[in-house]
Amino acid sequence: MKSPIDPNIIPLDQKYRDEFLGVLAHELRNPLAPLRNGLEIIRRSQSDPKIVHEALEVMDRQLQQLSGLIDGLVEASNLRQGLVELKVETLNIGSIIEESVKSIGARLAEGGPKLIFTPLAEPLLVEGDPKRIRQILVNLIENAVKYTGRDGCIEVDAHGESGEVEISVKDDGIGIPQEKLGEIFELFSKADHSLERGQDGLGLGLSIVRGLVELHGGSVEAHSVGPGAGSQFIVRLPQATSGVDSPRISEKRRVLVVDDNRDCASSLAMMLGIMGFETETAADGVEALRTAAAYRPDAIFLDIAMPKLNGYDVCKVIREQAWGKDPVVIALTGWGQNDDIERSREAGFDHHLVKPIELASLEPIVREIKAVHSA
Fold this sequence. Notes:
The protein is globular and about 65 Å long. It is 44% helix and 18% strand. It is built from eleven helices and twelve strands. Helix 1 (14-44) runs antiparallel to helix 2 (49-80) and helix 4 runs antiparallel to helix 6. The strands form three sheets. A five-stranded mixed sheet has the order 2-4-5-7-6. It has a five-stranded parallel sheet with strand order 9-8-10-11-12, with helices on both faces. The protein is an alpha/beta fold.
């Protein structure tokens, strides 16, 4: 299901665009400063492991911040152009809410508002893309966290009503001025532009939420009495009635990592090894085919731009083999536009990941992989 090409879904206002350019420069400079500092610290650390480790931790957080900014810009652009495609299945919305609340709650454990969700007594089913539904929920909850004090409270709830599933994210934070309620979902709009808010993003999150909700045939609205009175966001999605597919059972799995950048290949293989996989690596397309035929992996992380044979051609050859029809094949690339994703799909890839890979993007794919050749 593709989004309709409708420029009115996320209107671009000149005022917000001008403000956005200034905010973008600010948000990009913020992570660049600690990245530069980290490099200088490592140069001067005299290889002190503790200092190097702390510097790398800071740099990793800032790289995630930069990746998030870029991903948000691409997502907003794709929604505006009608280029987002949903992979629809029947979902239990209660399970996805619970996962989202737990993931954010873990980050708030050391300080932050209280996050409350009472598991639903009965399944509430919707037809939707699990990745996108989770993105909607996480954006709304993180938005509430951003504008709610450390001693505040955020309540997430869901119930069925008149053929719809209604999801509520309610906080007791700073609230929204009445004059802002009508424009809170506009691209680049933010409820609070004051310097006291510090780094509060580019103003993309809520416009992306609205675009994704409408793409699912639903609606979203914001409520607030005014400043200091908290706010509530309500998402309504069409309720489904069919059953939910059973998840795959994960077993011991083999993974082949292919990348001509040996540091990329070895570091990803190391991370997968820590997660419980057996791994092998290959450095070019020809070696990838030879290794895959002998190793018979359950999943293959495959770089696109490689010497001797590119990733698209490698994937096509693998899919032509009797043993190559079952493994999950994941594209690794620096290109993440809709055309790039479509080309990966046509070549036979199951997933398309943009470098640098974040653990949050990797974990759902890892859970999907099951052993197809392992004993």
